[in-house]
């Protein structure tokens, strides 16, 4: 292939750029994401049904189950965090294959487990590691294949996963009655092997990129001229003089003047720092990790997970029957699924409204619906609030990858998702025990729920403030670039 073709131009001077396919093989990539999400997360709500016989057999208490969930969250967090570093030493498909093997070992290992240690190792460490990497990679490859249709495809993937999650309890109940506990675990382990099909479908996006012509005009050429020095790596250590400031240098030779107008090369980095930066993208620590686009989704996901685990016990303490509790959980799932379908239908307008705006709105619904549930004694009203909680859960779960993709550059998406997963794991380990302790000390579920609601409230207040500040900075930056462009145009003339 000639150099001209590599640069995206032909001999006639027409320029091209490579863009994601937004379709084609991307639809099979979406199928692979559905397979991955379904096999790794769809049976999470059936934990008690699947392992009830084993927990009774080895006499596992509630503290042991809580420990298992903590180990699982930590494994997910660290596996997701180091996914980007692992991609530096192996291809995406190879990493996906290894994580699928690890997850399959975890699911099939539960069939032969006989001790609590084996339970923690298989259902906690192995399944957590496999899920952490596969979730990150599945979100990454969908993000790479789609730009304009990203919301539509991600909503469809999450909708299909939600349907599978609703069918999973019915399937597990039938399997337990037909094959027993061990047979059910073996069957679910066999289902997890479908992850290898998902891996086969994860072809690199570079294989399917589209070449589209770009319209070249005066503004485009001027922008290229402004950015040409930034794109040349071989001149990274060469001082750059701003053309627009040449007139200011006449008659000046002071050190302060030279330092003002020349870019001073950065100092050489130490070996340890190079190793750290090769493993993690340190540039995301200030720009992403310490922002609401990272802390917000991690906080809300943590609060959402803790709440759904505790709320059945709260309903039982209110004297609800098992049928009413089951109805509440069903309506929660219905609200979740209905919102996923809605996101699929209105995907074209979601970017116009703003992904972060929709996310914050969903968090507000989460807070208000939980307050309404605590303030009501009517069963019907509480069931309505549970449906709204399902709507909020969908916003929190489905929009999280879209929030990340909207906040960082495509090449940094995997690292950003890893940071978010790590933050989620740390918060789960820290906030979960605190909320549980508040519940035990006060002997009140309401106090624990108000603590979780306060987390939603903090996000609802701080995130809009951050968005407002960023928009003002962006507006000032655009005004500055327009001014510099006009000045450079005058100098060139």
Give a written overview of the molecule.
The protein is mainly alpha-helical and 493 residues long. A two-stranded antiparallel ribbon has the order 1-2. Helix 6 runs antiparallel to helix 7 and helix 7 packs across helix 20 (413-442). It has two domains: 14-217, Growth Hormone, Chain: A (Up-down Bundle); 291-493, Growth Hormone, Chain: A (Up-down Bundle), CATH 1.20.1250. The chain has helices at residues 3-6, 25-41, 47-57, 62-81, 83-86, 92-112, 116-145, 150-192, 195-201, 218-227, 255-261, 271-279, 283-289, 292-317, 322-345, 347-353, 355-374, 379-398, 400-407, 413-442, 445-492; strands at residues 16-19, 210-213. Helices cover 76% and strands 2% of the residues. It has 21 helices and two strands. The longest helix has 48 residues, at 445-492. Residues 25-472 form the Major facilitator superfamily (MFS) profile domain. It is found in: Membrane. It is a multi-pass membrane protein.
């Amino acid at each position: 292939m000639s150099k001209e073709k590599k640069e995206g131009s032909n001999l006639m001077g027409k320029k091209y750029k490579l863009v994601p396919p937004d379709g084609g093989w991307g639809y099979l990539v979406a199928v692979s994401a559905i397979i991955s999400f379904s096999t790794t997360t769809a049976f999470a709500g059936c934990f008690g049904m699947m392992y009830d016989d084993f927990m009774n057999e080895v006499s596992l208490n509630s503290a042991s189950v809580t420990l298992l969930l903590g180990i699982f969250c930590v494994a997910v967090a660290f596996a997701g965090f180091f996914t980007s570093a692992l991609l530096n030493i192996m291809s995406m498909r190879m990493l996906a294959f290894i994580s699928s093997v690890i997850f399959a070992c975890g699911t099939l290992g539960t069939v032969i487990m006989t001790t609590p240690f084996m339970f923690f190792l298989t259902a906690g460490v192995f399944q957590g590691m496999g899920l952490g990497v596969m979730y990150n990679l599945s979100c990454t490859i969908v993000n790479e294949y789609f730009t304009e249709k990203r919301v539509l495809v991600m909503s469809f993937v999450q909708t299909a996963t939600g349907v599978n999650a609703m069918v999973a309890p019915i399937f597990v109940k039938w399997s337990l009655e037909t094959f027993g506990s061990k047979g059910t675990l073996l069957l679910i382990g066999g289902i997890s092997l479908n992850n290898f099909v998902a891996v086969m479908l994860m072809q690199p996006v570079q294989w399917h990129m589209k070449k589209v012509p770009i319209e070249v005009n005066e503004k485009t050429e001027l922008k290229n001229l402004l950015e040409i020095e930034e794109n040349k790596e071989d001149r990274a250590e060469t001082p750059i003089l701003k053309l627009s400031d040449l007139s200011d240098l006449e008659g000046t030779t002071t050190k302060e003047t030279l330092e003002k107008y020349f870019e001073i090369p950065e100092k050489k980095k130490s070996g340890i720092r190079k190793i750290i930066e090769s493993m993690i993208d340190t540039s995301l620590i200030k720009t992403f990790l310490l922002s609401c686009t990272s802390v917000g989704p991690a906080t809300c996901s943590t609060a959402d997970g803790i709440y759904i685990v505790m709320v059945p016990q709260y309903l039982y303490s209110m004297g609800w029957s098992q049928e009413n509790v089951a109805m509440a959980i069903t309506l929660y799932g219905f609200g979740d699924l209905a919102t996923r379908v809605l996101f699929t239908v209105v995907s074209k307008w979601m970017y116009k409204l703003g992904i972060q705006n929709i996310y914050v709105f969903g968090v507000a619904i989460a807070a208000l619906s939980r307050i309404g549930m605590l303030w009501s004694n009517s069963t019907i009203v509480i069931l309505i609030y549970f449906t709204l909680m399902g709507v909020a859960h969908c916003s929190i779960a489905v929009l999280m990858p879209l929030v990340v993709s909207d906040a960082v550059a495509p090449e940094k998406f995997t690292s950003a998702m890893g940071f978010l997963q790590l933050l989620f794991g740390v918060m789960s380990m820290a906030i979960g025990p605190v909320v549980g302790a508040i519940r035990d000390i006060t002997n009140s579920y309401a106090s624990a729920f108000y603590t979780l609601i306060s987390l939603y409230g903090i996000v609802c207040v701080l995130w809009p403030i951050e968005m407002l500040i960023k928009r003002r900075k962006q507006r000032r930056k655009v005004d500055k670039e327009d001014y510099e462009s006009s000045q450079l145009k005058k100098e060139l003339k």
